[in-house]
Amino acid sequence: MNRKQLQKLGVPPDCVKLAVQALTRAAQQDQGFGLKGKRAKELVGAVLGEPRAYFEDSVWGEFAKELVADAEQPALSNIDYRTWGDEIDDAAHAQMRQACLVPTAVGAALMPDAHLGYGLPIGGVLACENAVIPYAVGVDIACRMKLSVLDLPVETLDSRRNAYKEAIMGGTRFGVGVEHHPKQQHDVLDRDWDVTRITREKKDTAWRQLGTSGSGNHFVEFGELTLEARDDELGLDAGRYAALLSHSGSRGPGAAVCSTYSAIAQRNLPRRYANLGRLAWLSLDSEEGQEYWAAMNLMGEYAAANHAVIHRLVTSLLGAHVVAGVENHHNFAWKEFHHGKEVVVHRKGATPAAAGELGVIPGSMADPAFVVRGRGEPSSLCSASHGAGRCMSRRQAKDTFRFNAVRNDLAKRGVEVLAAGADEVPGVYKDIRRVMDAQQDLVEVVARFDPRIVRMCGDGSKAED
DNA sequence: ATGTCC
Q: Which residues are noted in the entry as GMP-binding (predicted)?
């Protein structure tokens, strides 16, 4: 009997392989019994009819157990999600509805900067029970923000402009595959990179890329931080400060971890869930799930180290010291308690916003970023947006904007862009002020950061220096 | 967002 015949008989697709193995064993034990025989059909039919009666059978036991396990696989969920903001496209909603079908999903929310992503939309928050979804964390695992407030008078942003520009140009590296020469040092290299094969193999890449910014929406910029009132936790009085803000992640190694474990998850995805595709999950009880969890957390430390090195290099070139700081992941998964039970909360392009938790939400190269304090709103799973959110694709942006023209406009508005592409100009983003208005119940604004000197990945160069 | 992976 072949696969097709077995399935016609009622064998679930995920059990066909074991049925074939059982038939082969049966044929070996009984010389007069061929695989095509009517008897084969009868035997398979009998096991299908009462699988539990065959659990101890040396020929049919394994197949029988798989039949029962397959029937007991959890059904699709169908949970609800709340949405903040009203400028979210249908495609992002469609992805969120798919995510709400994931069998382990128990909570979901969509942030006001949401837009289309792989698997879960960017700006999507998804809580699962005892399972992790690599593509609900995202390709750039632990993509993150870091703000450092400097001990230099805010006026030096103008009076010492060249020193600031040289510090950014000398201390940062942008581009796909870009590395530091010589390699930088950080304690993260002393962590255990042998937790998975892929982290072991990517450790040297990680070292070479340590302290680099990559491409896309990543940036390093100087700007002016304004506090309307003293903030004790930040340790800053009301006033204006020179500050350094960066957006970067786990570079090549994080992408390799994501693709490795999402491929495993998708390969293991039972056929009945096939249309969930890139939302494939790994049980935290499985070896693969534990490996991903360990690798993801290492990438979290690595991304934090990248920012630490960037800030170390840039502030050291500038001759500045750091007097206060805020940082947070916005592509990550955490074990947290919500509604009385422990769940895995995936935030993919979403800022953790538990009550009292500080975070940074950037706008665009010309619009303000905000230091925020979470309000711990339960229905958002204690989350907020991670930025303004794109309202135009990179492709469309290249056809719509000429970067040099935009750059001249921005210069008149007091923002000097050292390098960037047309796909990251302010016009490709929603209005950050509207996005902040839409999430007043999620975060309170602690400070505003206005960009003054900005570096992103330049156009037409994949590995510029 | 990354890098060219049988």
A: 217-221, 330-331, 362-365, 386-389
Provide the residue ranges of all domains of chain A, joining segments of one domain with +: 3-72, 141-250+299-326+351-456
CATH of A141-250+299-326+351-456, one of 3.40.50.1100, 3.90.1860.10, 1.10.10.10, 3.30.479.10: 3.90.1860.10
Q: Does the model's pTM come out above 0.85?
A: yes
What pLDDT is attached to residue A318? 98
Which is it for strands A131-132 and A416-419: parallel, antiparallel or unpaired? unpaired
A144 CB and strand B closer than 7 A: no
Closest alpha carbon to C1' of B4, residue: A177
Task: Give me the CA A369–C1' B5 separation in Å, rounded.
Answer: 37
Residue A229, classed as helix, strand or coil, is coil
Q: Are the C-beta atoms of residues A101 and A129 closer than 8 Å to each other?
A: no
Q: Answer yes or no: are the C-beta atoms of A232 and A222 closer than 8 Å.
A: no
- Note the CA–C1' distance, A263 to B6, in angstroms: 15
pLDDT averaged over 10-residue windows placed end to end, chain A, 465 residues: 88 88 87 70 93 94 90 85 94 96 96 96 97 97 98 98 98 96 96 97 97 96 98 97 98 97 93 88 96 98 98 98 98 96 98 98 97 98 97 91 94 96 94 97 98 90 44
DSSP result, A306-342? HHHHHHHHHHHHHT--EEEEEEEESEEEEEEEETTEE
CA of A354 to C1' of B6 (A): 46
| CB A209 within 7 Å, strand B | yes
Judge whether A186 counts as a catalytic residue: no
Whether the beta carbon of A458 falls within 7 A of nucleic chain B: the reply is no
